[in-house]
Amino acid sequence: MEAAESTAAALAQSDLDLVERHRYGDPAAFEEVYRRYGEMVYSLCHRLSGDPDLAADLTQEAFLRIFRHVGKFRGGSSLKTWVYRVALNHCRSRLARRRLFWRSLAEPDEPGPEAVDPGRSPEDRAIAHDEGRRLTRALAAVPVAYREAVVLFDLQGLSYEEIARVLGVRLGTVRSRLARGRERLRQILEEGEPLAPESSP
Amino acid sequence: MSRHATAEQLSSYVDGELVGPRLRLVETHLVECQDCRRRLDGLQRVVAGLHRLEPLAPPPVLGQDLARRVRLEPKPRDLLERLEEHLRSTPLQSTVGFTFALVFALAVILYLFSGWVERQVLLHQPVLVAPSEVGAGAAVRRVGPRSFHAEDGRWLEVGVDPRGAAVVAVDDGVVRQLLVFEPELEPLLDEGVPVVLAMEDPAGGPGRVLEILPTPPEP
């Protein structure tokens, strides 16, 4: 417990040091922010937009916002949470404005490059790829508020508390949205071919 | 539990969030209710499927594109800008004390700044050459805080490299000829810009302003 607390404190201090270096014009500081959170933000943008090209644009624009405003970060939350909030708000405004929150489900875009797991055989990867496409399509039909909770918890690995801070809602709301999002996904997928059981590789 | 388990109960059960009586309630119900067991099985498949999704890697060029765009951005605000913003965002206190403190601070800043300007002017004033005086007998002359000594028929400031100084030939107090320009004046004069130098009188009299006009183009 003490080790976890000291790790969290060290991380918070590291976040503040990074932001302070950025404030004083150290270009390496922002590069470090991108190195830490670039993949995380791209993945979020991709899962929310369903379009790899649009996700790249959204990521770039979100990081420009981060570049402009990270100097105002005062450590009230973790830098990771703050970055998520900026990226999510940017996705919401940009996608809602363009009415592209999810593209047509009939012709989904290619999922784009995935981080290849060397431990999986090509066959396993093909099955996972197909399953991933079906899940991605099903996720597209889930209402936005529920989808955000599912993406942040099940795909991005945030805790309930972190999601509550990112979304600016109470813990109970996070639980409720997550449960409804998962339930909706289950219903959509059961209407088609069911997914592999949990125990399958 | 007489009714079916809620979506939230099943979701929390999958995450291992239920403990104590709430956990026992759901588990007991699942033993009895085939419909809820089927829903739970489906939910577990969905969650496992989501967890199996590979993380998405950003295209490699994204970082390079971002670095290019960041280079076009204004630099992060410096200390002065942040102070200005802070002052703008702070509501002014219209108290006598605050006004007095503000006026006092401005007066101190002005005093310090004027002293700095004066020092800069003194340091950059050109050397005044008075051949007749130099010829009458070499000497060291003090003008305010500055010292000049005679060398090769002109006055040079002690401790100042004469190569960068403007040297003006005068005779009986009348400027006759501009001998050497300060290097940074040359481009200005080449562009036809008149240059005004504040001249110091080595005799301690009132200073003079010398306007140096560019050489007219040859016909």
Number of helices of chain A: 8
CATH superfamily of the largest domain in chain A, by name, is: RNA polymerase sigma factor, region 2, helix turn helix motif
Q: Give the CA-CA distance, first to last residue of chain A.
A: 33 Å
Radius of gyration of chain A using CA atoms only: 18 Å
Order of helices and strands of chain B: HHHHHHEHEEEEEHEE
Q: Residue-averaged pLDDT of chain B, rounded?
A: 67
Number of helices of chain B: 8
Given as residue ranges, the uncertain stretches of chain B (5+ residues, pLDDT < 50) are 120-138, 164-184, 194-202, 206-219
List the strand order in the largest sheet of chain B: 1-5-6
Highest CATH level, the class of the largest domain in chain A = Mainly Alpha
Largest sheet report of chain A: none
Description:
The complex is a heterodimer of chains A (201) and B (219). Chain A is 71% helix and 0% strand. Chain A is mainly alpha-helical and 201 residues long. Chain A has two domains: 10-102, RNA polymerase sigma factor, region 2, helix turn helix motif (Rna Polymerase Sigma Factor, Chain: A); 120-195, Arc Repressor Mutant, subunit A (Orthogonal Bundle). In chain A, helix 1 packs across helix 2 (27-49), helix 3 crosses helix 4 (79-98) and helix 5 crosses helix 8 (171-191). The longest helix of chain A is centred in the first third of the chain and has 23 residues, at 27-49. Residues 99-113 of chain A have low confidence and may be disordered. With 219 residues, chain B is α+β, with helices and mostly antiparallel strands. Among the domains of chain B are: 7-52, no CATH class; 123-212, no CATH class. In chain B, strand 3 (146-151) and strand 4 (154-157) form a beta hairpin. Helices cover 48% and strands 18% of the residues of chain B. Chain B has helices at 7-14, 20-32, 34-52, 60-72, 79-89, 96-124, 131-136, 185-190; strands at 127-129, 140-143, 146-151, 154-157, 167-171, 174-180, 195-199, 208-212. Chains A and B meet through helix 2, helix 3, helix 5, helix 6 and helix 8 of A and helix 1, helix 3 and helix 4 of B.
